[in-house]
Structures are given as structure tokens and as C-alpha cells.
Amino acid sequence: MRKLSRRRALALTAAAPFWHQLCPGAVPAAKPSYPFEYWDVFTDRRFTGNPLPVFTRADGLSPDQMRAIAAETNLSETAFVFRRPAAEEKANGVRTRIFTPVTEYDFAGHPVLGTAFSLWKPGVTRVVLHLNIGPVPVDLRAEGGKLYGVMLQPQPVLAEVHEPAVIAKLIGLPLSDLDTRYPIQNVSTGRPNLIVMLKTLKAIRALRIDWNAATSYFASGDKERSFYFLTPETETGARYHARKLTPRTEDPATGSAAGSAIAWLVNYGLVASGEGIVIEQGSEVSRPGSLYVSAELTGSSLTDVQVGGYGVKSWSGEMPG
């Protein structure tokens, strides 16, 4: 048998996709594949904190496909990275889209950190993600084999205040369990969260939300349909214990909500401007995490909302196209 020359072999290889179209089955066409990594965010221990799948090369996936993949993972969010030329990424950030099982988010906290962790390499100290809301910078550092990141969140917006007696009925607690010295308020640093201060761990663990009534109530004006609960009673020595409940699930450690919370805490004097504190979250779903947060208050202006935490890669793989 005559041996193919290198030139002839290269020519046949290049023609393979077109030959496959003319003669199906003759030459198998190459199929794309999509590498992914699973990161546990706001923790330095695997299988704790908030899990995040990151598809690190998502070019070619449609929005419907990304939503379907997010539904298949059945986690709160899944991140998809679209790489661009280095000069474009330097100018605008690394294009990233975030999907839940039902919709796309313009911003979410632990997907930002988890995606930045997946892009980190030794010597890299900052990653900028280009989200639907615009660029979000994440500063990164390695600490004795552990990876830590802190994001700068968008400018806080403090919006509607809610009547404690109404909220108490919606969440299934007596009014006496709520700390009514502080307003129940809708706050956003990219995603809105209704901040509710409770007095005790016992109260925060006794929550029984009537989601039908809550959805109806919020639909009457306020667009927020979930809660972020805080209490100064903690398990680990953190400053606050938190829970994030939605109609679908309970989030183990919520970066966007923690940003809203620290803006609210600083605004009402519970935390000093610029002071860094820790919020613990996730023990109720057996995935404890720690969120390191701070915010600045100058006059009546809240700025520099920072949310940080550790991350660890659980595993990685590849999805066939």
C-alpha cells in the first residue's frame, strides 16, 4: 500500500468536514465539546459553601442551551464564559453569562467569584468579568494553597420599606421575633434582597414562608420575591448568621445578598463604615460558608461594597456537544 504524503494527509484532514456533508458516514465530523469546572464558593473546604458549575469555553452555546444546562445541574446558578482576544478582554473584561434553571441573571454574587477563580493563574491578581450589567472586578490572591477573591459590587440602592407585622405573617413568625428597631427594606447591589433582622438563631431556623401569599404581596408593587434574613446570634463567631430562602430552594452562601446586607448594616449603623465583618450562612442546608464583607458610608452615600471569600475546585470535566 502506498503511503500518503504529509501534504496529502493534511489536505484530506482539512476537507473532512465538507466530505462528511457530501457523504454522510464516510468521515465523522468533529464535534465541539465544552469543558467545565465545579467550584465551591465562600469556603475553603470541598462540598461546602455554594457550588457553581463554570463552563470555561461556552462559545457556540445558545441562550436556550445554557438555560437547559443550568436546569440539568439543578443548582441556583451556572456560569458560562466566552473567551475573546486578549486585547478585548483587557479593555472590557471576560464575557460571562449567568443562568438559573429558569432564566438569565444580569448579576449574581457567587457566580462572579467562582468564575474568577476558574480564570485565575499564578501571578494573576485581578480578573474583570463582563456581565450583562457591565464590568465587575475581582481581586484574587493565593494564601498557603487557598484561593481568596473579593468583588466590588455595584452601587447600593435602598428602596421600599415594609411593615413588620405584614412581613411577620408572610414568614410564619410572631412579630416579637423580628427586631423592629431596624427597617425591613429592599436593597440592591445588582440584585434586590429584602433584608429582615431577626433576634435569634431559634427564630431564623423557625421560618415558614407562605410563598403564595409572599408572591402575591410582592407582585402588588415591590419586584423582590425573596428574603435575606439576618440575626446577630451566630454559630462560629461571625458577626451575623444569615439565610437566603426563595420559592425554589435555599441558597447556601449568597454573595449578592451579602452585598445588600452590608450596605444596609452600614447605613443603619450596625457596622462601622469600612469595617470588615464575616457573615456565616448555609449550615441549615449542610453547606456552611463564610462571606467577608465591608462597605463605605460618606455622608448619606454608600459606596465600595466589597464581598469576598475563599473558593475550592471540586472537580472538572467535559460535556460533549
Describe the structure.
The structure is a single chain. With 321 residues, the chain is an alpha+beta fold. It has eight helices and 17 strands. Strand 10 (184-188) and strand 11 (192-197) form a beta hairpin. The longest helix is centred in the first third of the chain and has 17 residues, at 6-22. The protein is globular. Mean pLDDT is 90; it is low at 1-23.
SSE layout and pairings?
Blueprint: H1 6-22, E1 33-41, E2 50-55, H2 63-73, E3 78-82, H3 86-92, E4 94-99, E5 104-105, H4 109-119, E6 126-131, E7 134-143, E8 146-152, E9 157-162, H5 164-171, E10 184-188, E11 192-197, H6 201-205, H7 211-219, E12 227-231, E13 240-245, E14 250-251, H8 255-267, E15 277-281, E16 289-298, E17 301-320
Parallel strand pairs: 2-3, 4-6, 11-12, 13-15
Antiparallel strand pairs: 1-2, 1-17, 3-4, 4-5, 6-7, 7-8, 8-17, 9-10, 10-11, 12-13, 13-14, 15-16, 16-17
